[in-house]
Amino acid sequence: MRFQNRKYGKTKLSHYRFFIWLSLIIGIIAGIILTHLDYPSLATQGKKIETSIYQENQQPHPVDPDSFQSRIINAVERVSPAVVSISTERTVKLNYPEAFEEFYKRFYQQLPPLEFKQKGLGSGMVISQRGYILTNEHLLHEVDKDKITVTLSDGRSFKAKIVAINEKSDLALLKIKADNLSPVIFGDSNNLKIGQFVIALGNPFGFVLSQLNKKYEPTVTIGVVSAMGRAIQVEGTGQAKAYENLIQTDASINPGNSGGPLINIYGEVVGVNSSILSPSGGSIGIGFAIPINKVKQVIKELIR
Length: 304
Prior knowledge:
By secondary structure, this protein is an alpha+beta fold.
């Protein structure tokens, strides 16, 4: 009886070992087969699932040198180095309320001045290698003469002095002492047609969008000539001013773009961005520029 039990135990153990060895052999054979098959791992499967969410093309698209797009790009590259940012500061003086003034004079003989500094931002363009900058008069209206700074597209900043101002046409000339300047080229605004493409360049809100990466290229917007010979009335610090014979465009002219160039697709300046018509203060597609032919006449008068 004991012998039979031992024999049965040995038989069961032999069967168990047999199955273990058989499983090992099958596993080894399966591993060898799988390594020779192109079967993706779970990690590879996960990557394929992730990258299959979108499709992409990394091949560059060459720009046809004779295309409209190429003309726009070339025009912007030609004019951008001439576009500048102009920052100003104006001392605003206020009057004391009459009741307060009488009360204060009981204790003091003279009231301290009540004033604050108001900062302004605008754009302009280099028109001469001698350092002449063309811009709008309203950017310089009653500003402190020693607080006018011109920043070039390469990041250099210079103190500027006012050479001449023409309030009636909203034009002004500044001058800086700088070298390696790239002046713009004037075109002929009399040749403009309604519907013709134009490009507005300037620095909306100054170079606030360029400070982090130190890149001072101007902002570019594109549109068409919406109308010619427009007249508008602008409310200023004093009495309202009327400006006539303006170019109307839907190229966005945002706060800080005033004084920047309006160019055609050949890179020629056809106007000086001046103002917008907007109930909110932002661009709604109604902007105005001073025709460059009028600017030429005013410049001659200013220099004379």
